[in-house]
Amino acid sequence: MKQWWRLGAPLVAAVCIGVPGEPGAPVLSFDAAAQSVRAAGLERRLLAALAARMPAAPGLGSAFAVYLGDAQVPMLGDYRVESDALRFTPRLPLLPGRAYRAALDLRRLYELGGVPSRRPDSPVLRLAFALAAPAPPAARTRVTAVFPSADVVPANLLRIYVQFSRPMARRGIARHVRLLDDGGDEVPRAFLEMPDGLWDPAGRRLTLFLHPGRIKRGVGLHEALGLPLRPGRRYRLVVAREAEDAAGMQLAEPFVKELRVAAPDRSAPDVHRWRLLAPPPGTRQALTVAADKALDQPVFGRMLRLLDAAGRPVAGRASVEAGEARWRFAPGEPWREGDYVLRVGGELEDLAGNRPTRLFDQPAAPGGRRREARDVEVKLRIGGPAATRPARPDA
Amino acid sequence: MTFRRPFRRPFFSLLLLVVPAAGALALLAAPASPASAAKRASPAKPSSPASPPAPVAPPAVAAMAADLGPTATTGPIAAKSYSKLAFGPGGILFLGDSIGARIYALDLDDRKPVDTVGRLEIRDLETTVAAMLGADARDVLIHDLAVNPISKNAYLTVSRGKRGFRSQWQLPNDVAAPGVLLRVTPAGEIQEVRLDNVRHAAIEVANPINEAAEDEDHVSKLRVDAISDMSYADGKLFVAGLSNEEFSSTMRVYPFPFAGPGSATSLEIYHGSHGRYESNSPIRAFLTLRMRGKPYLFASYLCTPLVLFPLDELQDKRHVKGKTIAELGDGDYPLDMVAFKAKGTQYVMVVTSARGVLVIKADDLSQPRAAITRPVRGTAAVPGRYVWNPGILQVENYGDERLLVLARNVFNGQVSLSTMPVYLE
């Protein structure tokens, strides 16, 4: 057993052999967040030469390899050239509680890059790391929420968000997520095909796009296949147990959400029909904003800002609730009597991707221009009337 | 460490006891080289089984792109499960996706002819694959094997899902969706075949078995059998599996290059050891054969009838009853079938999980045989003879002189991928 192979807790033990006098000596490290191994501090000309040979990168595994335990054959994976590093991400998620080792043969790497090494005695860098022990089954990852949370959705629903309790493996997730019709058959090409899915930075929220080509009227897929969701029909969104989390463990249980489909929604959200329930001054009671219809959950949460009379953002906690039709804002400080402004970002979207100033599949105006999305501002007075319904400025 | 060849010569000497006879039976679309069999390995143009080995094609011809038809495109393969493999013309690899109900025709640019192959032996393949997948060997599942008849590269679909087994009745594709494709070269090198940018054509499998359907014991989802086996012959891809119809066992036939939806025929058989007609159990392994001038499907089912269907009856939207010619006995799972030629005689090999390796002289199959239409206890009308079984899981043609065999040793549990001569030197 080699000395570098001693392992402690789930920590990274990098063994780095630097070359004095050269800035950014190569170093291997394990990036736990990305579940990948980085070889940093590489010369830019070497990285550029390697990048030119991507993505095939034949033989890179002979220069930069990551192994499970005492395996003699390196793991399959992807190599990516970054600004100052070469990154290896394994093909399948790393396993909890397991020890890994990585080796970077610099001399071989220069050979593969076709770049002469300035240090012919380039050493082999080695790294040993281990992942935390597996979680007990009770603590397994599960689906905690799906948005839209309502059971009834418009036929031209644009996105579905799947929230997981812990970061997921991401890779190959599309194989584990399916939309089934009321006969139990998979709806073909329901989602935009992204084998590794579209994730938030934490890897906990998966965004599924219902195939935009099937929703937009006048687009080939829509004309050929129609909407993926048919009005009046029932569907099931299924996330298979086999979906793996970032620790390589399957979900605690498969997840199923039933959906009933209403008529397509081809109307813009009307901010001027929203009801703002202003709390009394001097309290920290939440301000609630009841929208005219259910909205895209993360976009709703992101697009609303409360400003004070001077135009400064008011600090506090915002949340989206009531089937994504209500925005709730609890201020950090008690309300002061006076005027406030609720600024609604122009990119606010409803479940079908319609914006306040533009429908999702609205045809371009003559001349090929689309209407720009504009912010909408709503005035609000704390200490004024209990309920505020903004007047239409142009009414 | 002592090394023992998993397939020993006594087996082949058994083959030689069979007197070669005039071929009343020929493989459908008999390949250009004598012993490359129809199964998963046929070039487009049939030729006489007695023709000499095909000359090595010049490299310029070899480098020509294969015809994928008008729907060919280049991009990523978004399959949900790499369920079944079969080779078509010009080095095209068919990849069946049961869960996604699609079949992909992949042009992997694997057309460099390798006319003669030597011995190949990869011991403890699961340990090597496990290292590549970042898993323990006990978690590795090898789902299917196919050999490119031109280059002799072997392809394997693999996953690390074995820990997911919940019942002894589950099948590999029910436990895990294979998502990694590996290539084993004649030199024994194992490489990953990336499918993120590949020239391909695809066809939807219409009306596949419902995703929610389960077997009687609720241990497995039937959808994994939307595609249960595939074989290419004479410009057509034959696909066995389950549909969503009342009689769900179906044979689909797609002209290749893909054009139009193909045909789907529901199949029914008399199952002697179950004592009833059945139409919901899929074909597990099959070959296309020509017998006395007429093309047939030679199919094997679970528990374990062998059945013939005339190919000309496989019309779209028809319901066809096969002729059960043998019962290999209950509790047996047909793992694979292959046809090959040894010393001028054609054979069909049926590999099953329980009773082992059945080798049938092709001429025997073409003799008039009574249909089994009454209940059978044990076995009935078993053709050919059982030979020594090294634990074969999958078998493929590997040039004219050899078979390529994936086998698990019953004592050490290790899986090997090895060549076997089809006759005594």
Oligomer: heterodimer
Percent range for β-strand residues of chain B:
35-45%
Rg of chain B to the nearest angstrom? 20 Å
Largest sheet of chain B: 6 strands, mixed
Low-confidence stretches of chain B: 1-63
Shape of chain A: globular
Order of helices and strands of chain A: EEEHEEEEHEEEEEEEHHEEEEHEEEEEE
What pair of chains forms the biggest interface?
A-B, 30 and 33 residues
Ends distance of chain B: 27 Å
Distance between the termini of chain A: 80 Å
Biggest sheet statistics of chain A? 5 strands, antiparallel
- How helical, in percent, are the residues of chain B? under 10%
- Alpha plus pi helix count of chain B: 5
Average pLDDT figure of chain B: 84
Please compute the radius of gyration of chain A using only Cα atoms.
27 Å
> How does the helix and strand content of chain B classify structurally?
mainly beta
Q: Count the E strands of chain A.
A: 24
Derived structural class of chain A: mainly beta
Quick structural summary:
Chain A is mostly beta strands. Chain A has helices spanning 44-52, 106-113, 212-215, 220-225, 297-303, and strands spanning 12-15, 27-31, 36-40, 64-68, 77-81, 85-90, 99-105, 124-130, 143-147, 152-154, 159-164, 177-180, 198-199, 205-209, 234-239, 255-262, 275-277, 287-290, 304-308, 316-321, 326-331, 338-344, 376-382, 387-388.
Task: Name the features.
heterodimer; A: 395 residues; mainly beta; four-stranded antiparallel sheet; 5 helices; B: 425 residues; six-stranded mixed sheet; five-stranded antiparallel sheet; 28 strands; disordered N terminus
